[in-house]
Design a protein that fits this description.
The structure is a single chain. The protein is an alpha/beta fold and 455 residues long. The strands form 5 sheets. It has an 8-stranded parallel beta barrel, surrounded by 4 helices. Strands 8-10-13 form a 3-stranded mixed β-sheet, covered by helices on one side. The chain has helices at residues 29-32, 43-48, 66-80, 91-94, 104-119, 135-139, 146-163, 176-185, 200-219, 241-256, 259-264, 280-287, 344-358, 380-398, 441-454, and strands at residues 6-9, 12-15, 22-26, 84-88, 123-129, 170-174, 225-230, 234-236, 294-297, 302-305, 312-314, 317-319, 326-328, 365-369, 403-409, 428-430, 437-439. It has a single domain (20-454), classed as TIM Barrel. The relative contact order is 0.14. Helix 3 (66-80) runs parallel beside helix 5, helix 9 (200-219) crosses helix 12 (280-287) and helix 13 (344-358) runs parallel beside helix 14. It is built from 15 helices and 17 strands.
Amino acid sequence: MAVSASTSTGGNTLPRFPRDFLWGVSTSAHQIEGAVDERGRSVWDAFTGQPGRVKDGSTAEVACDHYHRYPEDVALVRDLGVGAYRFSISWPRVLPTGAGQVSARGLDFYDRLVDELCAAGVRPVPTLFHWDTPLVLEEAGGWLRRETAERFAEYAAVVAERLGDRVPTWITLNEPAEHTLLGHALGEHAPGHRLLFDALPVAHHQLLAHGLAVQALRAAGAGHIGIANSHGPTWAASDEPADRDAADFYDLLLNRLFADPLLLGRYPDGIGELLPSPDLDADLKLISAPIDWYGVNYYQPTKVGAPGSAPTEFSGVTIPPELPFAPQEIEGYPRTDFGWPVVPEAFTELLLSLRERYGDRLPPLMITENGCSYEGLDDQDRITFLDGHLRALHRAVDAGVDVRGYFVWSLMDNFEWAEGNRQRFGLVHIDYATQERTPKASYGWLREALLAQSR
């Protein structure tokens, strides 16, 4: 898919990607939209209202005020020179109670946003679910109930009917692994449940929601459908059997629990019998219905060892000793402001391993998220990160991995979930007091890199 020629980017060079390679930037509704009084409440509104849940005490009530400032933000996407904008649609903005009466005002917003993107020559790539479950559905049991998957399919049909004539590419779910593990098993994200392995039904019902949504989107005439799953290499802390077993189990949860049912039509050994389903084979047939592409969100590898007798602190998350693994810090690499190790070569390793594991069952890939948190407008560390990861991606493409696109996380600084406003992932700086948008050095670097790719 690629050749070895390089292009100049302001004194640096990037390898040339295929001419039809899709470049984009990503955001999510709850993290940027604000305007909470103009939509239904979500689990994140309830979660951030509980003292101590968000590390800096901030909320997303205003966030980046994208709801009112979207024309300015679309102009930033256009001027960056990317071909696509990945955003998410807020389920409670479209269906305030998760089902039933549609909010005309909410759906009209996304109609205007899609029109603005199309007018700017930017492909709209909406994600239907990026963790903001309508609170009414959560209070009825949320993702622990099968019915939530059914409500999600109804919501997908509503959105597709309104936007499908202008949206060529769809994403069903974003990172169901994190939503299951952080939101329902460990309680670090909304809705804040600490269910440990009793959270497994959440995984299954999200996958079922994906399958039902694919069915609903296809029925509405939509095509080019994918999902955005998080993935990363898992490295055993040592060759000791206990560490290797722990790493294998962590790898199962992060990399296989969601990919295996989607791509192979089965759960990893020992998982299926733990899931509530009146007909698991029928569910898996729905879940594994063909998709057009598979999205990969990549940030870092994880080193994993056997658990000790006390909780483990890792990336701001407390891992209880009841779990059969304990993530450990990876030494010897630079770190982002989030404390995550910067390991571009692990990106290549991941993509090669996905091809090896799934073979011809692996659809074309899209990198739906990749980015880093750094302070400051002159964000040279972010430039180094992006440069290294794009080179790592190119090595995988050169090795024959079929990757069709790459989306930077994120267009702009935003509300970073339980971290609040403390972590800045954006190519564009947001002054939360004034809402002024200021492109960072990385924005200019990427614009020049993409311009060089187009020559």
